């Protein structure tokens, strides 16, 4: 939950890597000061600005704009840095007001890299100031906090920098203003430090009022309008008055993988806000039509006749015009996002890619774990053909629940465009008609195997393992790829004895790992303990589970992720009603996904209901089996060359 700060208030930070998102409403220059314990600046290198946008742990935009995104890695900052100040200054020559008092109140939001809100501050009460220190991140007793400052300076950047003890503050202020000014040509910058292009302006909320001078641009606030430093894009690549061509990895990050991850999250937010704006405009048009019709009908004398007909026709025409404009704005945004998706999808690494991506054909077992994993796709009813990858961070912090019950069947089988889209795209799983309950259970198990195979494929050989509980023995056919390639040592043992054996072994593993971590004695673990991360697939729950087994299952769901044990339930919640509310915490702790398209997930920005589609292999494809075969070969090769087991998994 985002903490809303007032001037002078501070708030602890529980993340070392944060993003600072600024929305000013008018073009401003954004920068960062890196101060010592007293807040002093030793030299010009302690100021990160558009002319020098990168320092260890900090990256700022390279131009003046109405919105900015600044990335800060607190762990990467030099040890001498104790205060990180975020400064804003009105951009000269940009048509912006002369003072902050004549401009909209700037707002600053601190978020984690995944978009989770941490703290926010709106700078109110500014009058004649032209530069301001908005917020400050400071280190106190080894921990970082954020403070809402709001200290303004009427004499601009020079006075701000001089107040912090910087010599030759006026010269640096002039250099910053020159570097942030819009470049008249595409000539190379005169400074040696690389520059960043201006982020695309966006609306600060879904229902923002468009300016009178032109349409609102709803693109993501932190997305650069040109690619990351690399080969120069020819001037003829895009029209002078149109957006530049999209580029894969066009987002902030310390690696290509992180850039793609952040770009996908940016696309996710872009689509959410664009659709929110369209829905808001549609609702406004409908309410305005109703209001105008009510006014026509309010006077009985005007309900009939030519004047009434003309008034009603005018109201409906105005309604149609508003809807047409709203749809045109949405279509413009969707065209940009679709073009970006077409560029990003082929560039995704295996962990982020669909099973039909050619990257899987040349897949090799990685040397390190990726930062995230694709669980499926998300889309909205306004645009069925644009799908956003659903990525979750690794290691998994929550277990998964693949709902094989009638709720997912009832929603997924409803007629409509989303169902038709899902049937068309998931041809490997869905038939021409709605699937029955048995088919949904089969699809749920198929989705579980696909996720397990993906997890195995993106981890180094020997550092991830899968175990299965199947008391009824009904999962044999679906588990065949795992068993035949050695990912499972054999078919799961049926009955209550098989349930107890697997759960007792994993509970023992969690207990031993927790004791070793607390005691800092990882070398004291028993030699027979497999320290690889474990995924437990539970099928046919609660068949074969007694009260003791349920207690162990709940223990693994709560304590397992921190010790490298992750839970995946393939179950119908209704079948476990006999246990009553005792299992409610278990269901709430798991991330629910469905084997058929179902609109049950919400985004963190505007709360749309997104339709989730599972990531299944194409019909007739052997890609999952091929990937598991390569993994088995790599595991055998690693066993020959490295007889020692993998290190203790990191705790969260």
TrEMBL record:
Top-level taxon: Bacteria
InterPro entries, sorted: P-loop_NTPase, Stress/Tellurium_Resist, TerD
CDD domains recorded: TerD_like
Low complexity composition-biased segments: 196-216
Domain TerD positions: 67-162
Pfam families for the chain: TerD (PF02342)
Region annotation Disordered: where it falls in the sequence: 180-250
Gene3D superfamilies, per database record: P-loop containing nucleotide triphosphate hydrolases, sav2460 like domains
Family membership noted in the UniProt record: Belongs to the CAPAB/TerDEXZ family.
Protein name: TerD family protein
Organism: Streptomyces siderophoricus
């Amino acid at each position: 939950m985002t903490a809303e700060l007032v001037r002078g208030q501070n708030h602890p930070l529980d993340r070392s890597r944060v993003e600072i998102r600024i929305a000013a409403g008018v073009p401003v220059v954004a920068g960062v000061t890196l101060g010592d314990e007293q807040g002093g600046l030793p030299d010009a290198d302690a100021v990160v600005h558009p002319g020098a946008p990168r320092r260890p742990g900090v990256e700022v935009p390279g131009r003046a704009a109405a919105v900015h995104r600044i990335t800060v890695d607190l762990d990467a900052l030099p040890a001498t840095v104790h205060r990180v100040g975020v400064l804003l200054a009105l951009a000269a020559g940009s048509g912006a007001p002369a003072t902050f008092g004549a401009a909209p109140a700037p707002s600053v939001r601190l978020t984690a890299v995944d978009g989770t809100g941490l703290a926010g501050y709106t700078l109110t009460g500014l009058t004649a100031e032209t530069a301001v220190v908005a917020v400050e991140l400071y280190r106190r007793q080894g921990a970082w906090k954020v403070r809402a400052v709001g200290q303004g300076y009427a004499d601009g950047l020079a006075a701000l920098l001089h107040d912090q003890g910087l010599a030759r503050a006026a010269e640096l202020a002039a250099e910053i203003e020159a570097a942030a000014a819009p470049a008249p040509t595409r000539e190379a910058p005169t400074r040696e430090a690389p520059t960043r292009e201006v982020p695309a302006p966006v609306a600060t909320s879904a229902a923002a009022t468009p300016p009178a001078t032109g349409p609102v641009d709803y693109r993501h606030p932190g997305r650069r309008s040109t690619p990351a430093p690399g080969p120069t894009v020819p001037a003829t690549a895009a029209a002078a008055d149109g957006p530049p061509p999209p580029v894969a990895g066009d987002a902030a990050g310390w690696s290509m993988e992180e850039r793609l991850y952040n770009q996908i999250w940016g696309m996710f937010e872009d689509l959410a806000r664009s659709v929110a704006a369209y829905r808001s405009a549609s609702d406004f048009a409908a309410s305005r039509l109703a209001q105008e019709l009510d006014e026509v009908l309010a006077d009985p004398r005007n309900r009939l006749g030519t004047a009434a007909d003309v008034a009603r026709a005018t109201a409906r025409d105005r309604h149609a015009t508003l809807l047409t404009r709203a749809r045109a704005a949405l279509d413009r945004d969707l065209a940009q996002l679709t073009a970006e998706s077409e560029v990003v999808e082929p560039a995704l690494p295996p962990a982020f890619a669909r099973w039909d991506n050619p990257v899987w054909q040349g897949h090799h077992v990685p040397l390190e774990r990726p930062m995230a994993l694709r669980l499926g796709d998300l889309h909205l009813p306004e645009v069925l053909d644009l799908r956003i990858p659903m990525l979750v961070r690794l290691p998994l912090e929550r277990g998964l629940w693949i709902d094989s019950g009638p709720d997912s069947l009832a929603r997924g089988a409803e007629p409509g465009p989303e169902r038709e889209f899902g049937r068309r795209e998931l041809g490997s799983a869905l038939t021409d008609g709605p699937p029955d309950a048995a088919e949904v259970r089969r699809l749920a198990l198929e989705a579980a195997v696909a996720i397990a195979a993906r997890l195995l494929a993106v981890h180094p050989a020997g550092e991830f393992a899968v175990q299965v509980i199947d008391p009824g023995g009904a999962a044999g056919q679906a588990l065949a790829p795992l068993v035949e390639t050695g990912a499972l040592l054999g078919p799961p043992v049926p009955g209550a004895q098989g349930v107890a054996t697997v759960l007792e072994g994993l509970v023992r593993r969690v207990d031993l790992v927790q004791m070793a971590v607390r005691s800092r004695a990882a070398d004291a673990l028993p030699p027979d303990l497999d320290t690889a991360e474990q995924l437990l697939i539970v099928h046919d729950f609660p068949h074969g589970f007694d009260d003791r087994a349920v207690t162990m299952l709940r223990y693994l769901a709560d304590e397992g992720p921190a010790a490298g044990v992750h839970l995946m339930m393939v179950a119908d919640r209704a079948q476990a009603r006999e246990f009553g509310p005792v299992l409610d915490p278990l269901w709430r702790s798991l991330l629910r996904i469905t084997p058929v398209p179902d609109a049950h997930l919400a985004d963190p920005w505007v709360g749309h209901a997104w339709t989730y589609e599972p990531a299944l292999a194409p019909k007739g494809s052997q890609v999952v089996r091929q990937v598991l075969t390569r993994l088995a070969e790599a595991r055998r090769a690693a066993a020959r060359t490295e007889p020692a087991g993998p290190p203790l998994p990191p705790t969260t």
